[in-house]
Amino acid sequence: MNMYSSNATDRRISLRNFKKTYNLRVRGTDAIFLAGRTDVTIPQLGRSSTNFPLLRHSYIRSDFLSETVPKSIPTRAGRAFTFRTTGTIDFFNGSASRYIPDGGVPNGSNLFGLGGISGYRGAEGALVGVFLSAKNPATQATPRRLNFTSQRLGLSFEQLSPKLGQVFFIGDGRPGNGSDRQQKFIAPPGATRLFVGIADGFGFDGLPGAYEDNDGAYRVVITRR
Questions:
Q1: How many structural domains comprise the chain?
Q2: What pLDDT, in 10s, does the model give residues 151-196?
Q3: Which of 131, 86, 127 is nearest to 109 (CA)?
Q4: What is the rounded CA–CA span in Å between residue 218 and residue 27?
Q5: How far apart are CA 218 and CA 221, in angstroms?
Q6: I want to staple 22 with a disulfide (CB 3.0 to 4.6 A). Which of 3, 171, 189, 222 is the partner?
Q7: Whose CA is closest to 73, among 20, 111, 119?
Q8: 14 is a domain residue
């Protein structure tokens, strides 16, 4: 009996300390502003819909791709996440400019919030994330946006604790300057899902949208601790 109790305790400890790893492919069309939106149907390219909230180009090219819903992984409050990210995305189809996970111009993105998901201020084209509850974010108040420009949070923080619905910079998951340390992201109270995707808009400014001319992907390894 004592031996059984000891084994059960050891098993609970091992499960509590277990690290789960997820490998995701985040496409340039994975719109972070569609995270958790069960009320949205993505229309075919060239068509519009009254319930589709993202801006689109006024024309269609043969290499355009439709917007996609970002992937998510389960979580709960207090869980810590680390990321390792590689790959490139072209935000202007066919251009010679391909962005790495840390993005392009460091202070170049200035996007508004949408449907319960905050805006985003920081490096343009970077990998970003958002923690959500089980509810459709469109039924929730839109939180204030975080500012990742060099004058505010920057990109070299060691740890970040965003609120529900706040879009946050992930990049390659390291604080920069050749460091191999991993930044840590903490799930807030009420969080049940972590989404990873892209924050985009025309010129990376204003209302979210302009995803159709994005191709390529970031490869993301997420460790839930």
A1: 1
A2: 999 999 999 999 999 999 999 999 976 678 999 999 999 999 999 9
A3: 127
A4: 6
A5: 10
A6: 222
A7: 20
A8: no
In this predicted structure, what is the pLDDT of residue 13? Answer: 36
Range of the domain at 62: 19-224
Counting DSSP H helices and E strands in the chain, the numbers are 1, 12
For 29-88, write each residue's pLDDT tens digit: 999 999 999 999 999 998 888 899 999 999 999 999 999 999 999 999 999 999 999 999
Instruction: Compute φ and ψ for 191, nearest 5 degrees.
Output: -70, 135
Whether 201 shows a pLDDT value over 60: the answer reads yes
- Residue 205 three-state SS: strand
Separation of alpha carbons 106 and 122, rounded Å: 6
Beta-ladder partners of 23: 221
- Residue 5 is assigned to a structural domain of this protein: no
Which pLDDT belongs to residue 102?
96
15, pLDDT greater than 70: no
**What's the pTM value of the predicted model, to 2 decimals?**
0.90
Instruction: Say what the pLDDT of residue 93 is.
Output: 86
Contact (Cβ atoms closer than 8 angstroms) between residue 83 and residue 197: no
Nearest to 167 by CA among 133, 144, 141, 184: 144
| 38 lies in some domain | yes
Q: Which residues pair with 71 in a beta bridge?
A: 196
> How many Cβ atoms sit within 10 Å of the Cβ of residue 30?
27
CATH number at residue 36: 2.60.120.430
Helix residue ranges, H only, the chain: 2-16
